[in-house]
From TrEMBL:
The keyword Oxidoreductase applies. One of its GO terms (molecular function) is NADH dehydrogenase activity. This is NADH dehydrogenase. It comes from Phytohabitans rumicis. Residues 9-338 form the FAD/NAD(P)-binding domain. It comes from the Bacteria. Pfam families: Pyr_redox_2.
Amino acid sequence: MIEAVNPQRILVVGAGHVGLYAALRLSKKLRAREAEVTVVDPQPHMTYQPFLPEAAAGNISPRHSVVPLRRELKHCKIVAGAVTRIEHARRTATVQPIIGPPLEIEYDQIIVAPGSVSRTLPIPGLREHGIGFKTIGEAIYLRNHVLDRLDVGAATTDPETRRRALTFVFVGGGYAGIEALAEMEDMARDALKYYPELSVDDMRWVLVEATQRVLPEVDRDMGAYTVQQLLQRGLDIRLDTRLESCVDGVVKLSDGDSFPADTLVWTAGVKPSPMLDDTDLPRDERRRVTCAATLQVVDGDRVLEGAWSAGDCAAVPDLTGPPGTFCSPSAQHAVRQAVRMADNIRAVIRGQEPTPYKHKHVGSVASLGLHKGVAQVYGIKLKGLPAWFMHRTYHVSRIPSFNRKVRVIIDWTLAFFLKREVVALGQLHDPRVEFTDVTPPIKS
Ligand SMILES: Cc1cc2nc3c(=O)[nH]c(=O)nc-3n(C[C@H](O)[C@H](O)[C@H](O)COP(=O)(O)OP(=O)(O)OC[C@H]3O[C@@H](n4cnc5c(N)ncnc54)[C@H](O)[C@@H]3O)c2cc1C
């Protein structure tokens, strides 16, 4: 075994599914004299995104669907900031800390894992009225906003204001959109028990999907089952339909329909982090970092020594599919790629050969609200309660750390016995208003 003379400086860009798992494994598997690991992320936590719909629906405390970095990565150096530039030719990354001037960090090995952002389109009104569903902040906001709209609907005597407040539009029928829509509708329906002024028929939940099906991650019959379930619950499902505009909150669809809505959630896919535009790393036509199956960054056939990437921002060949196919952007691939990448970095540091990443996507599980779900795993198809149970079992087994698993299970148990919490904490979004209202300005 060849031991490095100086510890290798490993820089991890982004502490999401890839970054957290890779840093954790590196710090466990490499000795301090072999490597020092620095992790840069603007957030102090990793977000377990598959739990965002349950956090928004109030089944899990939002705090428990994130993993604190400083607690989990005790042997890594954590930098609270965003990487704004990578010059791999100089082995240097520029970091904008959350406060203060930018700093440059030199490295020997870099893990590029800033993930993805919502893939939006230039639709009039979208920027002003839309919200994504990728961050814990968005999930918390959406929960408070939906419950707040129920309060508005109950308080107003104007039928138009009520209709607008109680119209919720979700654009995009992948698992993020379907789970978010189904969980939020389930929560709102549950909350209506405490609103004698409102009935289920007052609410309008609309899914707008540009293709002819939902949940492309599972077979067509499972997608059709999902649509049928949502239709039976009274949701308005528009397939083969696009959002054309939402100026002043008036939603216009390609099928000619138009209606006002106070809520517009955009879940129509993701694209690699735009931060990658400020790097000298090779990218493919979809702007993903090009990788070999070993998770090393490659420019054509040439391996860029010391550069690694994985997850939503990377084009990683799928060795289980036909030639030319790539791994899908999913947590399932991201966490497994992270572990393979960490082991490959260790191998390279110790003068050994890296091993290609190979994992056949086992399928998907999606929750459609309490006790409802759809799952297709290893070819086995499950619907309703068994699918929902599998969703919960699978994800609690995947969320990092024993601490988080216990907290999530306690949340579920409490919600089972005490019913879920359906109060809006809208003040969180503007907490200083009351104080500034009673504090007079100083007259000059
Ligand atoms: C609502 C929802 C539900 C989902 N459900 C499932 C599911 O059921 N199953 C499944 O397999 N997948 C699911 N996914 C997809 C899965 O979460 C992603 O594929 C996975 O998170 C990708 O991991 P990643 O590490 O590439 O990116 P992320 O986990 O998003 O991590 C990226 C990290 O990089 C940080 N970052 C961004 N820019 C910078 C920068 N400039 N500098 C430093 N750090 C930066 C971010 O703060 C973040 O912490 C879901 C996604 C969503 C949104």
